Amino acid sequence: MSVGTRVWVGRAEPTHQQRRTQVASDDGSHRAWIMKNVDDLIEGAQELSNRGFSNGEIADELNISRQTATWLLGRGESMTAPVRQQTGRPSDIHVDWSAIGRDSARLTHAGMAMADLLSKQGEAVDLTVGIEKAGGPLATVVARELDTDISAYAPRKHQWEEGDMEGLEGTFSRNFANIRGRDCYIVDDTITSGTTMRETIEGITERGGNPVACVVLVDKQGIEEIEGIPVYSLIQAIQVGSSE
Questions:
Q1: Which of 27, 74, 154, 232 could form a disulfide with 215 if both were Cys (CB 3.0 to 4.6 A apart)?
Q2: Looking at the domain assignment, is residue 21 inside a domain?
Q3: What is the pLDDT of residue 171?
Q4: What DSSP state is assigned to residue 67?
Q5: Is pLDDT above 50 for 59?
Q6: What is the per-residue pLDDT across 140-190, written as a single tens digit (0 to 9) for each?
Q7: Does residue 151 contact residue 173 with C-beta atoms inside 8 Å?
Q8: Residue 242 domain-assigned (yes or no)
């Protein structure tokens, strides 16, 4: 898989050699640690929580489901047994595409490929909606390639802490283009369950816009359409089977 790395939450713990991988940049001058196992994800979730991120924002930042974020935070509070001995683990895939996101050239090329997937969808599309946070930079590239205006949507999960999300509402930023009366593309980095994409489609429709097509870097569900709107992805990462 060429989107950095991934962690299979709910699988057997990796070997010691797999626990951390040191990655050098192209010029060899910079090295960074990347997440390679569940322990790293637990530490990452706890760090984000300590910095004031909501549970929903943590899920978004780590490209995992809200249920997985809650589980990771719970494990961080009480590490009384090795991860592999715990029950009730969620089944999820963590996707780390930071190798693309941290480099403007790579991000531009990825966005151009996403724009190409959308290029044959709709003849009068004049607006690209980026789902915050990570969908924003990708949407900017797509909008430039397809010569559209740009809008930004903050999903309600960014406000979520626990329980259901009744009473929470996503918002469109007033700093970007208006939705009403316009055909729209929708751009995000990953689909984990499809809930956020469905919410965005419904939000655009409720505000008088017309969703035409969606595109993401990585789809973890193999979704072809949502609410009748086609969904495209550069990569599909589908969990098959279980080691338990």
A1: 232
A2: yes
A3: 87
A4: H
A5: yes
A6: 999 999 999 999 998 876 554 566 556 667 888 899 999 999 999 999 999
A7: yes
A8: no
pLDDT at 25: 38
**Taking the CB of residue 32, how many other CB atoms lie within 10 A of it?**
11
Q: Which residue reads 């009068």 in tokens?
A: 124
Considering the domain architecture, whether residues 174 and 157 belong to the same structural domain is answered as: yes
How many whole angstroms separate alpha carbon 6 and alpha carbon 35?
8
CATH of the domain at 80: 1.10.10.60
What pLDDT is stored for residue 5 in this prediction?
A: 42
Indicate whether 228 and 114 sit together in one domain.
yes
Nearest Cα neighbor of 189 from 178, 200, 179, 180 is 200
Distance CA 149, CA 59 (A): 28
Across the chain, mean pLDDT equals 78
| Sequence-distant (≥ 6) Cβ neighbours of residue 8 within 8 angstroms | 93, 94, 239
Burial 98-121, CB ≥16 within 10 A → b, else e: bbbbeeeeebbebbeebbebbeeb
Q: Which domain holds residue 76?
A: 5-100
Q: How many structural domains comprise the chain?
A: 2
Q: Which residues contact 50 (CB under 8 A, 6 or more apart)?
A: none
- The answer on pLDDT for 29 being more than 50 is no
Give the model's pLDDT for residue 163: 60
